[in-house]
């Protein structure tokens, strides 16, 4: 049996590892980038922590999995009748195809947002954001008048909580005088963390305000230029607006309507059956699938474990199980040593929440990497970037 997996993220990597563990035949993992990106720590990498905790080469992950062929390529289309994935470089024949290519950013048509905002969802975006901040501090010898973060979902609140310490550290390193940092977090919904419990929203907002962040809820960003941001008709000067809002399903799926049916709401994920199947022998996992609690890493990992078991059952003609996944634990680290962590209505905020968050991150790495590498990636959170000057070139 040849399983082709497209996407080297949480779902794709975990599916390849689990299928390999079960020895279900040859596996080809197609990824358009040579590394796995641990999104949950990108806010930390964007604010001066080591890239080691966010970026793991796929070759390291699969070093001991000789049945997994990792290929750097981009899927362009699928010929479902012939069982072929058409890549930019070559074609791949499959018996089973697993697609997990993640989501993309959408700017909801807000004027100037795509051109002038920064982001922290990819490694390139993180580098661009850090280079901008450093070049202002190094060349202009001053901080921006305002730092505006748009979208108070998990990424927005985590970045808002970590940014001030990073900016002050850079100022200290480069002997730049300042009169404090103005960080504003803007959210169009009536509360921050709109998809989480009211307790989570309140506790996290209180923490952010304690750290000096101005939190604006029920406020709409209307336009962005290279100098100002327009919020509810009011113009605020800034060169540093970070867009952390808005995701849409990968546009690939809409290009093949004969294979994929999309849910007509939210980010428009792909409709799958009880076995994560979207079309005969084609399975869709992670953020791409219209399943409960999609959009978080734990769900992506669970769907990958499920699919390996499903393919083993298919191969040995055993009865199938239905996909089922309970609500995952939520955790939001806000500044050094503090996090809000909630599981089924029970929460811990502060140091305990932070220790739980670190434990969750360790579990994530252990789910994907051999123990020594997992612990190495996890521990690199404690390393702060040292090579500040050369990074800006
Ligand atoms: C900034 C940020 C912070 C987050 N924080 C958290 C958190 O704290 N906790 C949590 O649980 N979740 C968090 N998430 C969500 C979590 O990262 C996602 O739910 C998870 O990554 C989904 O896994 P996936 O495998 O579906 O997609 P991804 O992990 O995004 O992987 C998709 C992969 O497919 C590749 N790809 C795309 N198109 C193609 C193509 N055509 N051909 C080949 N390869 C392709 C991409 O390059 C990528 O490697 C965060 C997400 C972001 C963006």
Write a structural description.
This protein is α/β, with parallel strands linked by helices and 393 residues long. The protein folds into two domains: 2-32 and 73-105 and 247-315, FAD/NAD(P)-binding domain (3-Layer(bba) Sandwich), CATH 3.50.50.60; 113-244 and 333-363, FAD/NAD(P)-binding domain (3-Layer(bba) Sandwich). Helix content is 32%, strand content 23%. It is built from eleven helices and 23 strands. It has helices at 10-21, 42-45, 58-61, 113-116, 123-140, 154-173, 198-210, 297-315, 351-368, 371-379, 388-391; strands at 2-6, 26-31, 35-37, 55-57, 68-72, 75-79, 84-87, 91-93, 96-99, 103-105, 147-150, 183-186, 213-216, 221-224, 228-231, 234-237, 240-243, 247-249, 277-279, 282-284, 330-333, 339-343, 346-350. It has a six-stranded mixed beta sheet with strand order 5-2-1-9-20-19, covered by helices on one side. A four-stranded parallel beta sheet has the order 13-12-11-17. A three-stranded antiparallel beta sheet has the order 6-7-8, with no helix packed on it. Residues 6-12, 30-33, 39-40, 42, 74-75, 100-102, 120-121, 154-155, 250, 252, 286-288, 295-298, 300 line the site of flavin-adenine dinucleotide.
């Amino acid at each position: 049996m040849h399983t082709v997996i497209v996407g080297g993220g949480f779902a794709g990597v975990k599916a390849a590892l689990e299928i390999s563990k079960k020895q279900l035949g040859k596996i080809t993992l197609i990824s358009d980038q040579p590394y796995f990106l641990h999104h949950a720590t990108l806010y930390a990498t964007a604010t001066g922590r080591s890239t080691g905790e966010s970026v793991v080469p796929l070759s390291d992950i699969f070093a001991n999995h000789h049945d997994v062929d990792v290929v750097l390529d981009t899927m362009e289309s699928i010929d479902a009748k012939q069982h072929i994935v058409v890549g930019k470089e070559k074609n791949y024949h499959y018996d089973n195809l697993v697609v997990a290519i993640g989501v993309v950013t959408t700017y909801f048509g807000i004027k100037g947002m795509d051109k002038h905002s920064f982001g922290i969802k990819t490694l390139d975006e993180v580098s661009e954001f850090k280079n901008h901040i450093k070049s202002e501090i190094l060349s202009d010898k001053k901080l921006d008048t305002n730092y505006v973060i748009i979208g108070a979902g998990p990424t927005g609140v985590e970045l808002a909580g970590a940014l001030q310490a990073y900016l002050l550290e850079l100022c200290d390193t480069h002997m730049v005088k300042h009169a404090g940092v103005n960080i504003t977090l803007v959210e169009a919904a009536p509360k921050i963390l709109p998809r989480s419990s009211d307790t989570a929203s309140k506790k996290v907002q209180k923490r952010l305000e304690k750290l000096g962040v101005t939190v604006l809820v029920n406020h709409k960003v209307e336009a962005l230029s290279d100098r100002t941001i327009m919020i509810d008709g009011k113009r605020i000067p800034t060169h540093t607006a970070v867009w952390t809002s808005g995701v849409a399903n990968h546009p690939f799926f809409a290009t093949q309507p004969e294979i994929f049916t999309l849910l007509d709401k939210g980010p428009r994920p792909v409709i799958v059956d009880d076995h994560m199947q979207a079309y005969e022998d084609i399975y869709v996992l992670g953020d791409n699938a219209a399943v409960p609690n999609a959009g978080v890493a734990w769900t992506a990992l669970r769907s990958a474990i499920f699919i390996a078991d499903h393919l083993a059952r298919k191969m040995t003609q055993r009865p199938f199980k239905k996909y089922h996944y309970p609500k995952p634990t939520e955790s939001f680290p806000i500044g050094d040593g503090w996090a809000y962590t909630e599981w089924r209505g029970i929460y811990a905020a502060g140091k305990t929440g932070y220790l739980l968050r670190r434990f969750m991150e360790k579990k994530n790495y252990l789910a994907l990497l051999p123990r020594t590498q997992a612990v190495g990636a996890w521990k690199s959170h404690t390393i702060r970037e040292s090579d500040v000057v050369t990074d800006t070139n």
